[in-house]
Amino acid sequence: MSNRKTADRLIEAIEASGRHYRDSLPMIASENILSPLVRRACDSDLHGRYAEGLPRRRYYQGCDDFDTIEEIGIESAKRVFNCRFANIQSTSGTNSNIGALKSLAKPGDKITAVSTADGGHISHARMGAVGLRGLDLVTYPWDEERMEPDIDAAADLIRNEEPSVALFGQSVFLFPTPLEELSQAAHEVGAKVMYDAAHVLGLVAGGKFQDPLREGADVMTGSSHKTFPGPQGGFVLSDSDDEKLHRRLNSGIFPGVCSSYHLHHVAGKTVALSEFEEFGSSYAHDTVENARSLGEALSSEGFDVLAEERGFTASHQVVTRHGGIDSGAGRDAAATLEEAGIITNMNMLPGDTKALSPSGLRLGTPELTRVGMGTDEMQDVARLFARVLLEGEEPSSVKNSVREFKSQFQTVQYCFEPGPAYPGL
Ligand SMILES: Cc1ncc(COP(=O)(O)O)c(C=O)c1O
Question: Which residues contact 179 (CB under 8 A, 6 or more apart)?
Answer without folding.
Answer: 168, 193, 195, 210, 212, 215, 216, 217
